[in-house]
Amino acid sequence: MNLKQEETNLDNKSLNFDPTSIKEYINLVGYNESNLLSKLRKETKKFGPLSIMQIGPTQGTLIGILCQLGKFKKCLEIGVFTGYSSICIANNLSDDGELFALDNNEEYTKIAKKYWKLAKVDKKINLMLDDACLSLDILCKTMQETFDFIFIDADKNNYMKYYEDSLLLLKPQGLIAIDNTIWKGRVTDETDKSKSTETIRNLNKFIKNDNRVEHCILTIYDGMTLCIKK
Fold first, then answer.
1. Is residue 219 part of a domain?
2. 81-112 confidence digits (pLDDT tens)
3. Three-state secondary-structure class, residue 194
């Protein structure tokens, strides 16, 4: 058995389970979600199918742990929605920490601002309510290599720009987390030629060969890629 076959077998062992039962198990013992975040998650469900844009509790917990471990002070979030991930980040920043939050939807961010205040993190968050590409252009003019952590979870068609701009804004040894990089499994379906799927598929291949970063795709929820800038 060669090394590649052995690695494949190990991966198969780790994935050889019933996903439904494992999801139920993780929901029971896999994280501790605050009452406030649980309330926010339930309120977000009023948006119906669009509520899937919100990250799950496991992702939020992971992001919070990463912020604690990295002792991050200045963070950037591209895509806010109703503010769940913002709270997970801001809750784990020091008192002088700052989160720049980019979104263009006033209805969603109105809910986010309400919960930021309830979570007592509103003073740490600087909301830039505009097209994220335009906001990034502004930040890239004055704040290159100043951010410790950047979370990308916005419209998928602009993921490549978000990634490239994030590398400009990130400090050396800073961390990028990119959500939805498995994209419900569509990235493995070569017959899926939709723009969003092709964008994520191409981004994954690009990062694989990008010598500016060390990276790993985690199979948490819909896939999350972690990149450390060299």
1. yes
2. 999 999 999 999 999 999 999 999 999 999 99
3. coil
Number of domains the chain is built from = 1
28 in the Ramachandran plot: left (φ > 0), alpha (ψ -120 to 50) or beta? alpha
Classify residue 3: in a domain, yes or no.
Answer: no
Query: What is the rounded (10 degree) CA torsion for 129, 131, 137, 141?
Result: -10
Task: Answer whether residue 3 shows pLDDT above 90.
Answer: no
C-alpha distance from residue 151 to each of 1, 16, 48, 88, 147 (Å): 39, 30, 24, 11, 11
- Is 49 part of any domain? yes
Taking CB atoms within 8 Å and a gap of at least 24, the contacts of 31-39 are 31/57, 31/58, 31/60, 31/61, 32/61, 33/57, 33/60, 33/61, 36/87, 36/115, 36/118, 36/119, 37/84, 37/87, 37/88
CATH number where 111 lies:
3.40.50.150
